[in-house]
Amino acid sequence: MSQRVLFSALRARPSVVLHRAAAPALTTSVRFSSSDAHNQETFEQFSERYVAFFQGAQDLFEVQRGLNNCFAHDLVPSPGVVEAALRAARRVNDYATAVRVFEGVREKVENKQQYQAYLDELKPVREELGIDTKEDLYPS
After folding, report:
1. How many CB atoms lie under 10 A from the CB of residue 5?
2. What pTM did the predictor assign?
3. Cα 35 vs. chain centroid, distance in angstroms?
């Protein structure tokens, strides 16, 4: 028992160790990240990138991942991007995701007039694909 106490006391005692400071390195490191390429991306480039992404999406996971990434940016996607997302959602046969695209647009726009402008512009696509908005499905 006393041996145990002695070992505990020795372990708890701070030991003073002096280290010689290392000489500062004269090299600099630069970190490159994959997001650096998108920092200077224009709205047109952003739109082209996401239209191409949604046109190539083959399953629901890809479509939803693309929507999450697209709506995470501090801008409202162009109608072309929204159309490509709607077509991708219907291509993978997920009606709920297609309806949710319009909910995302409604949350991103600044006012009801902008949302109505999106609905008006995308009306032919909505009719072609048979997509209703949440407001159409659940009138209040």
Report:
1. 9
2. 0.71
3. 12
